[in-house]
Amino acid sequence: METKNVMIVGVGGQGSLLASKLLGVLLTEEGYDVKVSEVHGMSQRGGSVVTYVRYGEKVYSPIIAEGEADFIVSFEKIEAARYAKCLKKGGKIIVNTQSIDPMPVIIGNAQYPENVLDELKEKGVFIDSIDALKLAEEAGNPKSANIVLMGRLAKYFDMDYDKWIKAIKGLVKPQFVDVNIKAFEMGYNY
User: Fold this and answer.
1) 97-115 pLDDT, tens per residue?
2) Pairing of strands 4-11, 69-74
3) Strands 33-36, 40-41: parallel, antiparallel or unpaired by DSSP?
4) What is the structure's pLDDT at 14?
5) Distance, CA of 48 to chain centre
6) Domain locations in the chain?
7) Which label site among 20, 24, 133, 184 has the fewest CB atoms less than 10 Å from its CB?
């Protein structure tokens, strides 16, 4: 099997580490050789972060080079644009429509690029946009937007739905399992 590559990008504090662990556990249980990177970037709240998940018959490195990502799951719009160059031809970006102002915008040195997703689409990039924050709030916890996005990603994977739910139950603290399953379902059924 050809190695597949998933990048999870966002801003520190959005739950990208849990999302990458969820995907890594699921793929390992499916029998793939899986490499999950550490978080690269500013893992502190507000900084840009990226994790890599690579899986296949045999994977030698966790790093995804430019033009190799089959999927990019972006927790924020600017992060989708920042990492779009890593997408392979025919790849897909699943993006949360949430906007989080980066430091240059916060201090007044720049403006947030409002049409960033439209610009990517005009370049021929496949964009599946979803208001993950709103759906997470409807599920009962805005912090579960990461799991909403994993639910959306699951639509593109040929894996049994129940295995995703089992992985969530195995990773999430018991008191948050129900809200995360609901968040996953909302992303999956969006």
Assistant:
1) 988 777 778 888 988 888 9
2) parallel
3) unpaired
4) 82
5) 13
6) 4-188
7) 133
Tell me the pLDDT tens digit for each residue of 45-74: 567 789 999 999 999 999 999 999 999 999
- Helices 145-154 and 16-29 cross at an angle (nearest 10°) of 40
Give CA–CA dist 53/75, Å, rounded.
16
The one-letter code for the residue type at 181 is I
Tokens 């390992």 correspond to 28
> What is the domain class of 4-188 according to CATH?
alpha beta
- Within 10 angstroms of residue 188's Cβ, the number of other Cβ atoms is 17
The predicted model scores a pTM of 0.92
Q: Are 59 and 3 in contact (CB under 8 A)?
A: yes
Q: Which two tokens stand for residue 38?
A: 């550490």
What's the chain's Rg over C-alpha atoms? 16
> What are the φ and ψ backbone dihedral angles of 123, each rounded to 5 degrees?
-85, 5
Is there a contact between 122 and 81 (Cβ–Cβ < 8 Å)?
Answer: no
Q: Which H or E run contains 171?
A: helix 161-171
Query: Residue 154, Cα to own-chain centre: how many angstroms?
Result: 11
Q: Which two tokens stand for residue 97?
A: 């429509």
DSSP state of 39: P
What pairs with residue 129 in β-bridges?
95
